[in-house]
Amino acid sequence: xxxxxxxxxxxxxNSEGLGRASMQKALATVFGSPGDPSYRYDGKTDKQIVRxxxxxxxxxxxxxxxGMERLIDLYVVGLQEGVKSGKFKVRPxxxxxxxLDALEARDDVVLGLLTGNIAPGARIKLRAAGxxxxxFRVNAFGSDHEHRPELPAIAQRxxxxxxxxxxxxxxxxxxxxxxxxxxxxxxxGARAIGVASGNYTVKELLAHKPYAALPSLADTRKVLxxxxxx
Length: 230
Ligand SMILES: [Mg+2]
Prior knowledge:
Layout: E1 2-6, E2 13-14, H1 18-31, H2 46-56, H3 61-85, E3 91-92, H4 96-104, E4 109-114, H5 119-128, E5 138-140, H6 151-163, E6 172-176, H7 179-184, E7 191-195, H8 202-206, E8 212-214, H9 220-229
Parallel strand pairs: 1-4, 1-6, 4-5, 6-7, 7-8
Antiparallel strand pairs: 2-3
Helix pairs in contact: 1-3, 2-3, 3-5, 4-9
Residues 7, 9-11, 42, 176-178, 198 line the site of magnesium ion (MG).
């Protein structure tokens, strides 16, 4: 059995800046500034984005923690409104629906999410892209921990608690578009598959020594083979 854990942004879907726009609006409302426009969101957890950008604006951790809950609430509202507005075309990336179908059809794979998105944000983005969030049975979200390297162990523990299946570290397959996805499961021995459908190239991803790096998830046979051999 393998637990196959997908990142969301840049891996399963593209939201054309919906997340960033919603975050910046919420940051401006709660902390008075949308944060440095050059700060990269990809590979970060939502709360890490808040902390990093607001530290750069000179806010203390106490002040950031005090505003976090309201920030997250406003961010979720912003996502919902952004989807409703039709301004952001949220779409699944090429091959995503096919590889999810192919994995779901197998009895030696459990599908899951490993994402920096807080749980409600993940569901809003997935639904907007036409991907049913309930397809993913074991998940670790940015709302479970601010620090991404903690997330693989959370997914592993959840699989044990909810499915009664104990996955060894090397049976965790982490699929994502950034070096942070590749690095996060290393201490557990998880297998990382980089996918260059976000802002990093195959060459850049390979520099972080994943099990494999693919240009995209478009070639279902190749992706499935890579996952099942990992
Ligand atoms: Mg990503």
